[in-house]
């Protein structure tokens, strides 16, 4: 006889404002219920969390929590958000950012940065990630010199996401990424490559190499699949964008 179907999962309704203050515990407690039993390395951590109401499946209602504790949690949330923002802004590559539990261990801040920058990222042996934050009010150009194209054994691509929601940007070209598989990409005579990123067209003769962007902030993410040793050890780097207003 086939086993009975599991009870449907009922996720708590998502409220962005609650996710950014002490009420994030509602979501955390629900998610912890899906990660039972805890990993042996995190049992002591779970015990510490339980002292402030963080526990798998436990209801959370801020009106029954000591105000001083709520204030302390909110302070911690604000500090963590700033640290996360600062780490995301300064990173240009992903060397060591992703990996298994055995590799990352208790590096929870690093794991949070990885989750914020890209869920389900591959480890460095599989893919190298890098990029920058830009503003589509102007335009940016990136030039890969001859012999300095992304060193991929498989393929490479660059994708643009809107900020802060990190969605693909709808545009008239229906182009959301550019890479070595892009049809019509124009290379320099010596094999180099210039890419253009911005809200306005760089001109009809350059549109083959144009990645459309929103008028506001965006995230430009490069992915190199099957990266060479030079990419993995930091010898190869993504070219710095040249901003033009």
Q: Spell the H/E element sequence.
A: HHHHHHEEEEEEEHE
Q: Structurally, how many domains make up the residues? A: 2
Instruction: Work out the radius of gyration.
Output: 22 Å
User: CATH class of the largest domain, anyone?
Assistant: Mainly Beta
Number of helices: 7
Strand composition percent = 15-25%
- Output the CATH homologous superfamily of the largest domain: Domain of unknown function DUF1214, C-terminal domain
Concise account of the structure shown:
This protein is an alpha+beta fold. It has helices spanning 16-19, 24-32, 43-50, 67-90, 101-104, 108-117, 229-232; strands spanning 127-135, 139-144, 152-162, 177-179, 193-198, 210-212, 217-227, 242-244. Helix content is 26%, strand content 21%.
List the defining traits of the structure above:
single chain, 245 residues, alpha+beta, Jelly Rolls, 4-stranded antiparallel β-sheet, 4-stranded mixed β-sheet, 7 helices, 26% helix
Q: Explain this structure to me?
A:
The chain has 245 residues and is an alpha+beta fold. It has helices spanning 16-19, 24-32, 43-50, 67-90, 101-104, 108-117, 229-232; strands at residues 127-135, 139-144, 152-162, 177-179, 193-198, 210-212, 217-227, 242-244. The protein has two domains: 16-90, no CATH class; 124-244, Jelly Rolls. Helix content is 26%, strand content 21%. Helix 4 (67-90) crosses helix 6.
């Amino acid at each position: 006889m086939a086993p009975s179907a599991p009870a449907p999962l009922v996720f708590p309704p998502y409220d962005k404002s609650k996710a950014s203050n002490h009420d994030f515990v509602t979501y955390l407690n629900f998610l912890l219920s899906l990660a039972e039993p805890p990993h042996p390395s995190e049992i002591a951590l779970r015990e510490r969390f339980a002292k402030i109401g963080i526990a798998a499946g436990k209801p959370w209602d801020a009106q029954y929590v000591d105000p001083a504790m709520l204030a302390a949690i909110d302070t911690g949330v604000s500090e963590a958000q700033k640290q996360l923002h600062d780490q995301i802004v300064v990173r240009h590559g992903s060397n060591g950012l992703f990996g298994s539990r055995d590799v990352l261990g208790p590096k929870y801040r690093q794991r949070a940065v990885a989750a914020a920058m890209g869920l389900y990222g591959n480890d460095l042996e599989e893919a190298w990630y890098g990029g920058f934050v830009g503003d589509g009010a102007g335009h940016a150009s990136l030039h890969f010199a001859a012999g300095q194209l992304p060193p991929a054994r498989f393929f490479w691509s660059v994708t643009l996401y809107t900020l802060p929601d990190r969605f693909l940007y709808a545009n008239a070209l229906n182009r959301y990424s550019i890479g070595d598989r892009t049809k019509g990409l124009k290379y320099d005579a010596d094999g180099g490559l210039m890419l253009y990123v911005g809200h306005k067209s760089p001109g009809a003769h350059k549109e083959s190499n144009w990645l459309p962007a929103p008028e506001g902030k965006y995230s430009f993410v490069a992915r190199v699949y099957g990266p060479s040793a030079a990419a993995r050890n930091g010898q190869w780097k993504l070219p710095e964008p040249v901003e033009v207003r």
